Amino acid sequence: MATIGLVPDEDFIHTTFSRNPFAMFAPQPVGVTFANQESGEKIILLLRAHIITLVPALLATIFLILVPFLVGPLLGFLRISLLDLFNVGQLFLISVFWYLVVFGFAFYKFIFWYFNVYIITNERIIDFDFRGILHKETSYAELGKIQDVSPKIIGFFGTFFHFGDVYIQTAAEKAEFEFHKVARPDIVAHEILEQVRKEAAEPPGVVA
Q1: Kind plus residue range of the DSSP H or E element containing 178
Q2: Which CATH code is given to the segment(s) 3-49+116-201?
């Protein structure tokens, strides 16, 4: 069974049941359901943006954590003491506030990654678009309305870590779907087309 990095080949999708709740590429995830899931509808593949896309946020978080440790030496170089500007209590409150902001930033980046999910089922494709705690959008297209699927990998990191975008043209209410920065976009596109083929081959009223 061939695999590339953390992401498997096409056969793996149909022989594996993912139990990792944080997976970026989860074939047939166990225990996962979603709102308005129809009777007999099965999740074939659940996708998130490649984990490598979190690296900039991680580096930014590390830098922000270190900022308070850099301020003192920097002011010392300028011959300024923090204790000349603030008392100990004020410095403590400023530090607490700063780290709450840093935690909020890191938490939001993770939640944004975790809840922006793409799902391929045996009946449709679904895009769960998380834009904020109070703003979420869900778009879907039935397999029978999918007209074209195109994977695209751009740049050094996309090529090295094998992630990219999948563009899906449909005749649904939403004409174009984009699965952004997902792992193995070629396999994702292949699986969508495979489900479309199975759906087309089924008699009317029969779930693939």
Answers
A1: strand 176-183
A2: 2.30.29
Alpha carbons 20 and 24: distance in angstroms, whole number: 9
Eight-state DSSP code of residue 175 = -
β 117-121/124-132 pair status: antiparallel
* Secondary-structure percent of the chain, ordered helix, strand, coil, rounded to 5: 45, 30, 30
Q: In whole angstroms, how far apart are CA 87 and each of 93, 95, 100? A: 10, 12, 20
pTM given for the model: 0.85
Q: How far apart are CA 154 and CA 175, in angstroms?
A: 23
Residue 108, pLDDT > 90, answer: yes
Can you read off the two tokens belonging to residue 124?
Answer: 């449709």
Q: Enumerate the domain spans of the chain.
A: 3-49+116-201, 55-111
